[in-house]
Amino acid sequence: TDEFGYTYVLDAENILTEDPNELADIIIQKDKSLNFTAIGIESVGFQRWLNKIIEHKDQNTALKIFESYNPSIPGIQNQKQRRISSLKMIMHKVKFNRTLQVLIEQLYEFPNGEHDDLLDALMIAMDISSKYLPLKII
């Protein structure tokens, strides 16, 4: 987020894998190339083990991890939809890299689209950004 309150979404990937080691390697590689300030990991399914796997493979990347909410509580689908719906309130302050077609399609198709994984990831990123990363003007 910049000094005018705009959030820039530069990159997003929708990677489907059942191998947490593969996902950990991808996260570590992306961190090395982009030098993330923070990394949000959802604490559901095998993702809850990613923190430990990344910690074992790369301490520097592991220090940047913030775990997100635990969506295994009852009624999570409604909560997830409410959370993603709240994006509408801030969309005028979000600028997307035009190459992020899948994310943009999910925005247009929500809540009737087949997938909303990238929207959920966007909300996690924005939540972590607002809670843990103070605005820095350089």
Cα Rg: 15 Å
Helix content: 40-55%
Intertermini distance: 12 Å
Structural class: mainly alpha
List unreliable stretches of 5+ residues. Answer: none
Question: How many beta-strand elements?
Answer: 4
Largest sheet: 2 strands, parallel
Q: Widest sheet: strand order? A: 1-4
Overall pLDDT level: 83
> Assembly state here?
single chain
Please provide the ordered H/E string of secondary-structure elements.
EHEHHEHEHH
Strand fraction: 5-15%
Q: Counting H and I runs of at least 4 residues, what is the number of helices?
A: 6
Q: What is the 3D form? A: globular
Plain-language structure description:
The protein is mainly alpha-helical and 138 residues long. Helix content is 47%, strand content 9%. It has six helices and four strands; from the N terminus they run E-H-E-H-H-E-H-E-H-H. A two-stranded parallel ribbon has the order 1-4. A two-stranded parallel sheet has the order 2-3. Helix 1 crosses helix 2. The longest helix has 16 residues.
Question: Top keywords for this entry?
Answer:
single chain; 138 residues; mainly alpha; two-stranded parallel sheet; two-stranded parallel ribbon; 6 helices; 47% helix; 9% strand; globular
Briefly characterize the structure.
The protein has 138 residues and is mainly α. It contains six helices and four strands.
Topology of this structure?
Layout: E1 7-9, H1 20-34, E2 39-41, H2 47-57, H3 59-62, E3 65-67, H4 76-85, E4 94-96, H5 101-109, H6 117-132
Parallel strand pairs: 1-4, 2-3
Helix pairs in contact: 1-2
